[in-house]
Amino acid sequence: MSIRQTIDRLLRKLEKGYATHNRIEVSRLALLHNLSLFENLSGMPAIPVLKGNAYGHGITLVAEALKSRKLPYLAVDGYFEALRIREVSKQPVLVMGAILPANYKRLKYDNFAFVVHDAASIRALGATGKRVKVHLEANSGMNRYGARLGEITKLTTLVLGYKNLVLEGVMSHLADSDGSDPATVDAAVEQFDSCVDMVKAAGAKPTIFHIAQSAGSFKAKSRYANAFRLGVGLYGINPFPRSHTLHAQLKNLRPALKLVSTITKVIDLKRGDKVSYNYTFTVPRDMQIAVLPLGYYEGVDRALSNAGVVKIGLRFIPIVGRVCMNHTMIGLGAIAAKVGDEVVVYSDNPADKNAIDNLAHDHNLFNYNLLTALSSDVRRVLK
């Protein structure tokens, strides 16, 4: 065992018995419910996406929760995310993000597949001599990664030239799956299908085809697609804006995450007292405020200063003053609260004002960012 592994092991042992003021609760049942909901709507198996620390939920926790389901792949952005999954799960992992070609010779290929879209990566993988499954990414209009139509045949032939490479899949990414114009999705799907035609014509025999993410999973009508990548929808976040006609079809999604904190101080203030940086809140009457030991570092968006709410019991309590790096103040009003009381900062009840989707909608924030901004230092617990 290396020195680093020994240190990590000791830290995990210490952390296990160390009580914390803040925690993120992740619901196994909600994750599995959302997975089934999307698979039933699309009629295809899902490839759950666990990049970005599983959209802030905790990559190892979510991988642990999904172990009971037979899945084509779990998808991540980077190689080290794949290694995190391998700590708890033996399920196959698809690495979708860019990797410097020079790194491929250093990697372990432990039931990992890799997305490729350029000759340099294909050559580097081929040069390893190790059997590696690859998914060729086609550009269907996103104009980010992905091979263009004119490159597909050349890249397919290049993959086939290496006996150790298996062209298992063809994928793409929809740029406007949550938009209101179905023609944009139809055009992207048509281009994707044309790319698959070219891959097959070049002699490859891929078996997995995926173009859609959560929003596109029951919109994209491809001749080939037999799987889809389930990202934000897995975590109970509706990928469609409320104005979209398809938003209501996902009304039964269950948010999988709850952020809980603890009151660490209660302060009596007089009318006219100020709170937090730059004195943006003036106490309107004699009142108590409470201090929560988490702030924008832990993931409480600073835009919620003097605007957001938290929940104590059945009551919503306003955030007062500027959210600090590691502290947030709340105005208790008539609420009788004390040090040690728990506070729900982000609720897993979709009807609550402080549910992620409602905070994003009411305060013009991006729901994905509210989740992925949650610090990895906050303890996660699988419920």
Mind explaining what this structure looks like?
With 383 residues, the chain is α/β, with parallel strands linked by helices. The protein has helices spanning 3-16, 28-42, 51-55, 59-65, 79-86, 119-127, 149-160, 182-201, 356-362, 367-372, and strands at residues 23-26, 46-48, 74-76, 93-95, 112-116, 132-137, 165-171, 208-210, 228-230, 257-262, 265-269, 274-275, 281-282, 287-292, 309-312, 315-318, 328-331, 342-346, 379-382. The strands form 6 sheets. The protein has a 6-stranded parallel sheet with strand order 3-4-5-6-7-8. The chain has a 4-stranded mixed sheet with strand order 18-10-1-19. It has a 3-stranded antiparallel sheet with strand order 11-14-17, with no helix packed on it. The relative contact order is 0.13.
Quick structural overview:
With 383 residues, the chain is of the alpha/beta class. Helices cover 27% and strands 21% of the residues. It has 2 domains: 28-236, Alpha-Beta Barrel (TIM Barrel); 257-382, Lyase, Ornithine Decarboxylase, Chain A, domain 1, CATH 2.40.37.
Which short descriptors sum up this protein?
383 residues; alpha/beta; TIM Barrel; Lyase, Ornithine Decarboxylase, Chain A, domain 1; 2 domains; 6-stranded parallel β-sheet; 4-stranded mixed β-sheet; 10 helices; 27% helix; 21% strand
CATH topology of the largest domain: TIM Barrel
Global mean pLDDT: 94
Q: Determine the CATH superfamily of the largest domain.
A: Alanine racemase
Helix content: 25-40%
Structural class: alpha/beta
Number of domains: 2
| End-to-end Cα distance | 31 Å
How many DSSP helices? 10
Largest sheet: 6 strands, parallel
Radius of gyration: 24 Å
What is the CATH level 1 assignment of the largest domain? Alpha Beta
Global morphology: elongated
| Tally of strands | 19
Under the CATH scheme, the architecture of the largest domain is Alpha-Beta Barrel
Query: From N to C, what is the helix and strand string?
Result: HEHEHHEHEEHEHEHEEEEEEEEEEEHHE
